[in-house]
């Protein structure tokens, strides 16, 4: 039986069948199963085919031109969708900037209107022009979709209308130039404190705009507006050239000046009412110090993602409600370093890439840590570890592991050719507040 | 049993040694390529391919370091230039197809007409480039104003760039007729241009680095002068043509696949070495990639070395397509070409498959996303995994000759696309069902990637050989291979593929994927960004099997087609001899 099988296992190399092709048929000889050759035949009867071909060529060129022009011009788009079951209510799906809109209102559905004079703007001329947006108040916008303002590099101010009742936490993701989100006072679900977005009762902070520090520089006298309303920095480097931001001490700006600058511009105090930091809330924020209230229960996924300038997190207690977000030395009853007592949940990738942090203490109340919560928060340079080089945990190892702990939650550093976890100090005591 | 196997292996080795020795200079019966030519292929294609790869460092595009760092040209200028050149490009393409598929041999009247068009274009191009139109352009005109507002471009410079385009195409077209007529009979259709282009190409490679165009202060002038310089550089060809020659090296299908599997595959090793050597050489320079000496010394020296080697070995590689003498060849008119390729149902089927394949266009490199954002691999572990997966495809490739004997093209391709669909289906299931368990999900994904890589190389080798067979069939149908006229299918499919290719990027935008890749750290978004495009791809793979169910071009038909081609060559060669005409360019086989 096996032998038979072996015999039938044949290859597909065909036994060559020899064709007899007469000399006078070399150009016309048709092989069985294949179309007949058509060589030097007349195509005079193919008039329709020729016309269709020419029309097609014109179409192909037109389509290519259309797509190329589309690729070249930045017209921007605004996309809204009517919410099912709620006639007259719309969701803002996508805001795509034409490169000139710096302020946008989420109230009536908006549209972009251009005329001939806007050609330069569409071709990438960087000039502010908020007049191209017109709003239709009859179309009420009540919802903002996730990633609606994704990766915008121009928008500086967003104004949320009174009717907006549902904002996805990821709506303002990667809005690099966003300084402030202002909410209408009559909005039932949301509010803002000096351009930072909260829910109405201020138990959740939703979005700290990425470029909020630029607004604070203007507010605190480190910049001014020129005659065109453009912000100009008053900070100068040692050669007298304008400097947008102060990253350290210089000949002109000493340690004291720098520290004062950090406290005014790069410090944020969360109101004592806050129980939750929303997902992506402080991502890419240019902050140096953050003060968290005792009472905070949750820090959402990517809450402090890539906020690498954060040097220290502090927690505070007060005996009265605090809604002031600018730092002042006498606003706290008690202050201590790192995460607050009472915190229960740390989301995944919460402190990823936060290499400016040096001390981290996980209080005993924490029962959940998401995966990669402190990923890439440590690095090795000149043989030494920088960033979070040791993790301090309040409880002992056995108790800690009873919690829900995600994979690779600890920071890892390069070790030989692979990666190694930093050490964990279980049953640790919290360090004292530095003077 | 073991001894029997051992002796069989020794016997096989002895047989192989004798086979190579006997047929070192003359091929075996039924074959066309002596083993000595295998060695030549290895060296020639190796040099040619490596030279081509070196030239990838020089291009007039936003992705070229030379252009963006040293020439410092604005990004938007490339889009504007493409737009200026686009409307006329289709016309130039049509004219070039007529010349290419007639191998440069045209009826006298047609040749005169084409030369007239090309010479007129040269004069017009020179005029547009040399004349200063600026004083005659009204800056308030909408088109002029729009062109002036593009950085790096002005209305006047746009006319110069249009002139460059017209001049270039006129010159390239005239050269195309002239050199094809002169060189194709001697060197064949695929590598002839090396003999007229190699010296000017080497000179241009040197000039690109040495001419101080990048020092021109005015950005508008710098853009149009650089455009003209690179147009001149692109006038002279140097591509991987010797590999194309080897794909047509024999009318014997088995021999063709043998050449493709061994000497050709091994010839690419030289480039793998160069991939390491070039960055190392550049690393010795003061400013590394930012050092202009990369383009003054490193690139020219390496390229010219490979160009010399290419020319030394190229003459030893022959293309062996059964064809009549050039003087007796079939004339292809424009409509012959257009309707000729449209009569080839296999080309339609392959293009439909290509069209369906575009369903996955615009998706991210799924493996990179999984490795970097799901598993957070980096350093050695990342490198090892990448190497392991990509190497998985190499060993099976050496068994291509066996598979091509054992299975039909139809079977192989249906298996190939089904295996992709199933493989990606399992990956999607793993990501959705056990995405939380990074280790388990990772193991499943990596196993599937390895399996898919091992089942990738053989079908692709067989598929590429089938493309050559389809060209043989086209030659049977139309008397020529019509490789240029086949470009018309691209005109049909490109508007559709462009539209389909927009679907996935639009979806990805909705899921948060834009210029900031960090969004891939958001678990829910990452899953959508990976999974939804793969589902499109799976649908594409399943649909791609359908055309192959109707594929009926098999080895028996290919044998018959080759017989017809051989017979045509034989009869026309005999006729040429009887009429005392030249039999140059003929190959009977």
Quick overview:
The complex is a heterodimer of chains A (435) and B (589). Chain A has 435 residues and is α/β, with parallel strands linked by helices.
Indicate the low-confidence ranges of chain B by residue numbers. none
Query: What is the chains' assembly state?
Result: heterodimer
Specify the biggest β-sheet of chain A: 8 strands, mixed
Tell me the helix content of chain B: over 70%
For the sheet with most strands of chain B, the description reads: none
Beta percentage of chain B is under 5%
> Helix count of chain A, per DSSP?
6
Classify the helix fraction of chain A into a percent range.
10-25%
Radius of gyration of chain A (CA) equals: 32 Å
Mean of all residue-level pLDDT scores of chain B: 90
Q: How far is the first residue's CA from the last residue's CA of chain A?
A: 91 Å
Q: Which spans of chain A have pLDDT < 50 for at least 5 consecutive residues?
A: 1-9
Give me the strand/helix succession of chain B.
HHHHHHHHHHHHHHHHHHHHHHHHHH
Number of helices of chain B: 26
Task: Work out the largest interface and the residue count of each chain.
Answer: A-B, 75 and 73 residues
**Span between N and C termini of chain B?**
44 Å
Radius of gyration of chain B: 27 Å
Number of strands of chain A: 29
Shape of chain B: globular
Main sheet strand line-up of chain A: 9-10-11-15-17-20-22-26
The figure for the number of domains of chain B is 3
Provide the descriptors you would attach to this structure in a database record.
heterodimer; A: 435 residues; alpha/beta; eight-stranded mixed sheet; five-stranded mixed sheet; 6 helices; 27% strand; disordered N terminus; B: 589 residues; mainly alpha; Growth Hormone, Chain: A; 0% strand
List the helices and strands and how they pair.
The complex is a heterodimer of chains A (435) and B (589).
Chain A: H1 2-8, H2 47-72, E1 77-82, E2 89-96, E3 103-106, E4 108-112, H3 119-122, E5 133-144, E6 157-160, E7 166-167, E8 180-183, E9 190-193, E10 196-199, E11 204-207, H4 212-219, E12 223-225, E13 231-233, H5 255-265, E14 267-269, E15 276-277, E16 289-293, E17 298-299, E18 312-317, E19 334-337, E20 345-346, E21 360-362, E22 368-369, E23 378-381, E24 384-387, E25 390-393, H6 397-402, E26 404-405, E27 412-415, E28 418-421, E29 423-425
Parallel strand pairs in A: 2-5, 3-6, 5-7, 6-8, 11-15, 14-16, 15-17, 16-18, 17-20, 20-22, 21-25, 22-26, 25-29
Antiparallel strand pairs in A: 1-2, 4-5, 9-10, 10-11, 12-13, 18-19, 23-24, 27-28
Chain B: H1 2-22, H2 35-55, H3 65-70, H4 75-101, H5 108-130, H6 142-148, H7 155-187, H8 194-210, H9 219-235, H10 241-247, H11 253-261, H12 263-267, H13 269-283, H14 293-314, H15 334-342, H16 345-357, H17 366-374, H18 379-391, H19 394-397, H20 400-406, H21 409-434, H22 438-454, H23 457-478, H24 487-510, H25 523-549, H26 555-578
Helix pairs in contact in B: 2-10, 2-13, 2-14, 4-7, 5-7, 7-9, 8-9, 8-14, 11-20, 16-24, 16-25, 17-25, 18-22, 21-22, 21-23, 21-25, 23-26
């Amino acid at each position: 039986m096996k032998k038979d099988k072996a015999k039938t296992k044949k290859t597909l190399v065909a036994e060559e069948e020899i064709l007899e092709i007469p000399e006078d048929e070399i150009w016309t000889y048709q092989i069985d199963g294949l179309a007949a050759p058509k060589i030097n035949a007349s195509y005079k009867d193919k008039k329709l085919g020729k016309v269709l071909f020419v029309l097609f060529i014109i179409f192909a060129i037109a389509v290519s031109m259309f797509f190329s022009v589309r690729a070249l011009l930045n017209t921007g788009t605004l996309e809204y969708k009517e919410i099912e079951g709620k006639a007259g209510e719309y969701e803002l799906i996508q805001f795509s900037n034409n490169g000139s809109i710096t302020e946008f209102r989420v109230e009536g559905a908006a549209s972009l209107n251009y005329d001939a004079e806007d050609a330069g703007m569409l071709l990438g001329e960087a000039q502010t022009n908020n007049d191209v947006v017109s709003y239709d108040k009859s179309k009420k916008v009540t919802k903002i979709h996730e990633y609606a303002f994704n990766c915008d590099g121009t928008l500086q101010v967003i104004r949320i209308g009174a009717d907006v009742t549902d904002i996805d936490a990821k709506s303002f993701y990667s809005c690099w130039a966003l300084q402030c989100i202002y909410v209408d006072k009559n909005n039932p679900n949301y509010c803002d404190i000096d351009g930072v977005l909260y829910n109405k009762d201020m138990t959740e902070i939703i979005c700290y705009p990425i470029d909020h520090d630029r607004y604070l520089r203007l507010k605190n006298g480190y910049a001014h507006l020129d005659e065109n309303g453009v912000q100009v920095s008053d900070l100068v480097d040692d050669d007298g050239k304008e400097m947008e931001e102060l990253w350290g001490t210089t000949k002109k700006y000493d340690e004291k000046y720098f520290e004062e600058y950090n406290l005014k511009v790069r410090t944020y105090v969360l109101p004592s009412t806050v129980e939750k930091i929303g997902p992506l809330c402080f991502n890419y924020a240019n902050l140096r110090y953050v003060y968290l209230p005792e009472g905070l229960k949750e820090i959402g996924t990517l809450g402090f993602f890539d906020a690498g300038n954060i040097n220290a997190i502090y927690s505070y207690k007060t005996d009265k409600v605090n809604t002031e977000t600018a730092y002042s030395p006498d606003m706290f009853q008690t202050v201590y370093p790192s995460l607050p007592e009472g915190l229960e949940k740390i989301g995944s990738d919460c402190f990823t890439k936060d290499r400016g942090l040096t001390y981290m203490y996980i209080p005993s109340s924490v029962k959940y840590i998401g995966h990669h919560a402190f990923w890439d928060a440590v690095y090795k340079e000149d043989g030494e570890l920088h960033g979070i080089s040791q993790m301090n945990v309040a409880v002992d190892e056995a108790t800690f592991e009873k919690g829900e702990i995600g994979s690779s939650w600890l920071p890892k550093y390069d070790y030989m050719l692979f990666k190694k976890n930093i050490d964990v100090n279980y049953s640790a005591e919290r360090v004292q507040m530095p003077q | 049993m073991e001894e029997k196997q051992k002796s069989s292996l020794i016997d096989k080795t002895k047989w192989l040694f004798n086979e190579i020795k006997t047929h070192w200079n003359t091929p075996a019966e039924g074959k066309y390529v002596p083993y000595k030519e295998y060695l030549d292929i290895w060296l020639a294609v190796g040099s040619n391919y490596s030279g081509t790869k070196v030239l990838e460092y020089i291009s007039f595009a936003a992705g070229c370091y030379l252009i963006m760092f040293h020439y410092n040209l604005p990004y938007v200028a490339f889009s504007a230039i493409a737009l200026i050149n686009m409307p006329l490009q289709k016309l130039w393409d049509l004219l070039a197809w007529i010349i290419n598929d007639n191998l440069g041999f045209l009826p006298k009247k047609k040749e005169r007409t084409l030369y007239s068009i090309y010479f007129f274009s040269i004069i017009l191009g020179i005029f547009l480039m040399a004349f200063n139109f600026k004083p005659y352009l009204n800056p308030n005109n909408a088109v002029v104003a729009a062109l002036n507002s593009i950085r790096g471009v002005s209305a006047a410079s746009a006319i110069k760039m249009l002139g460059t385009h017209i001049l270039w195409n006129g010159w390239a077209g005239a050269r195309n007729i002239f050199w094809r007529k002169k060189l194709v009979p001697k060197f064949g259709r695929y590598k002839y241009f090396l003999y007229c282009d190699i010296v000017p190409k080497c000179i241009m490679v040197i000039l690109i680095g040495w001419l101080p165009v990048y020092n021109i202060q005015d950005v508008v002038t710098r853009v149009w002068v650089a455009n003209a310089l690179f147009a001149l550089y692109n006038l002279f060809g140097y591509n991987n043509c010797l590999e194309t020659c080897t794909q047509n090296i024999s009318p014997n299908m088995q021999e063709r696949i043998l050449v493709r599997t061994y000497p050709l595959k091994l010839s690419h090793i030289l480039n793998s070495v160069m991939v390491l050597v070039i960055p190392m050489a550049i690393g010795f320079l003061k400013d590394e990639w930012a050092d202009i000496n990369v383009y003054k010394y490193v690139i020219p020296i390496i390229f010219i070395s490979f160009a010399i080697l290419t020319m030394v070995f190229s003459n030893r590689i022959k293309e062996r397509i059964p064809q009549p003498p050039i003087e007796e060849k079939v004339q292809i008119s424009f409509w012959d070409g257009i309707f000729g390729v449209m009569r080839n149902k296999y080309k339609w089927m392959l293009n439909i498959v290509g069209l369906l394949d575009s369903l996955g266009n615009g998706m991210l490199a799924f493996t990179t996303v999984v490795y970097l954002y799901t598993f957070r691999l980096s350093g050695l572990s990342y490198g090892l995994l990448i190497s392991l997966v990509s190497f998985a495809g190499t060993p099976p490739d050496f068994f291509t000759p066996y598979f091509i004997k054992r299975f039909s093209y139809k079977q192989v391709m249906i298996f190939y696309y089904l295996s992709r669909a199933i493989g990606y289906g399992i990956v999607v299931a793993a990501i959705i069902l056990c995405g939380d368990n990074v280790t388990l999900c990772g193991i499943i994904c990596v196993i599937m990637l390895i399996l898919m890589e091992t089942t990738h190389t053989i079908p692709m080798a067989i598929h590429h050989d089938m493309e050559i067979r389809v060209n043989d069939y086209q030659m049977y149908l139309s008397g020529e291979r019509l490789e240029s006229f086949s470009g018309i299918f691209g005109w049909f499919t490109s508007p559709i593929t462009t539209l389909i290719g927009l679907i996935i990027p639009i979806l990805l935008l909705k899921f948060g994927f834009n210029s900031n890749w960090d969004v891939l750290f958001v678990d829910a978004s990452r899953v959508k960004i990976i999974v939804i495009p793969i589902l499109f791809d799976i649908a594409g793979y399943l649909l791609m099997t359908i055309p192959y169910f109707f594929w009926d071009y098999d080895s028996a038909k290919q044998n018959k087609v080759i017989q017809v081609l051989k017979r045509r060559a034989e009869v026309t060669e005999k006729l040429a001899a009887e009429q005392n005409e030249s039999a140059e360019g003929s190959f009977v086989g």
